[in-house]
Design a protein that fits this description.
Helix content is 31%, strand content 33%. It is α/β, with parallel strands linked by helices and 245 residues long. The chain folds into two domains: 123 residues, Rossmann fold (3-Layer(aba) Sandwich); 109 residues, LytTr DNA-binding domain (OB fold (Dihydrolipoamide Acetyltransferase, E2P), Beta Barrel), CATH 2.40.50.1020. The strands form four sheets. The chain has a five-stranded parallel beta sheet with strand order 2-1-3-4-5, with helices on both faces. Strands 10-9-8-12-11 form a five-stranded antiparallel beta sheet. α2 runs parallel beside α3. The radius of gyration is 21 Å and the shape is elongated. About 2% of the residues have low confidence.
């Protein structure tokens, strides 16, 4: 992975350059001391990841990240900062991780490995998702610690309310998100089916209905053994859906 370092302080850039040189799977490709220079270098060097300081004179790291997100194929952005107060605002710019200074080699390697899984096509789609209505959204964003996980909707089987969070069951496991079922149902209206007051199923993965041991009905899925309870209220709609498929 090609990495651009952006920080207005030379010692910080030197530190990150030295750390990157100790990671054989990642290549330091350049550095910038301002947000404006970073935007120019991204166009010139085409890095995969930008390590970006938040507090910089002139164009801040947050604003730089917002402008980077508008590029057709944006690089992944990882913020580096001595201040932990910007975490939520940082993730709102589509940054995928947040590193506190002084940056440790082990933590940097962990974050870069995660960042390498989020390719440019996914980042472009994420930006598009935010401007698409009518069920066009293609990813679910989940914050896991200090990193952002982009889960393709195509990999999601169902959503289930879990107290104040929603559990996302997807191909590689489970994760909690803060979006409500109501919001998800509205945004993904053409791609999900309500099966219970606390659950939505992604339509393309529904394999059928099965009788439960308590005489109720459960939804079954392709590729996973999970069974999802179907409420009596929503059963007729599920049957109609299955007849159409």
């Amino acid at each position: 992975m090609r990495i651009l370092v952006v920080d207005d302080e030379l010692p910080a850039r030197i530190r990150l350059r030295e750390l990157l040189n100790r990671l054989p799977d990642h290549e330091f490709c350049g550095e910038a001391g301002t947000g404006a220079d970073a935007l120019r270098l991204v166009q010139k060097l085409n890095p995969d990841i930008v390590l970006l300081d938040i507090q910089m004179p002139g164009l801040s790291g947050l604003e730089t990240a917002r402008q980077l997100a508008e590029i057709e194929k944006p690089p992944a952005v990882v913020f580096t900062t001595a201040h932990g107060d910007y975490a939520l605002e940082a993730f709102d710019t589509q940054a995928i991780a947040y590193l506190l200074k002084p940056v440790r080699l082990e933590r940097l390697e962990q974050v870069l490995t995660s960042a390498s899984r989020v390719n440019r096509a996914q980042l472009s789609q994420l930006a598009a998702d935010q401007s698409v209505d009518n069920g066009g959204r293609a990813h679910i964003r989940a914050r896991i610690g200090q990193r952002l996980e982009l889960i393709p909707l195509a990999d999601v089987f169902y959503f289930q309310a879990d107290q104040k969070y929603v559990m996302v069951r997807y191909r590689h496991g489970e994760v909690l998100i803060e979006e409500s079922l109501k919001t998800l149902e509205q945004e993904l209206s053409t791609r999900v089916v309500r099966v219970h007051r606390n659950a939505l199923a992604v339509a393309v993965h529904i394999a059928g209905l099965e009788k439960a041991t308590d005489a109720g009905m459960v939804l079954i899925f392709d590729d996973i053994p999970d069974r999802l309870e179907v409420s009596r209220r929503h059963l007729p709609a599920i049957r109609r859906f299955l007849k159409k498929t």
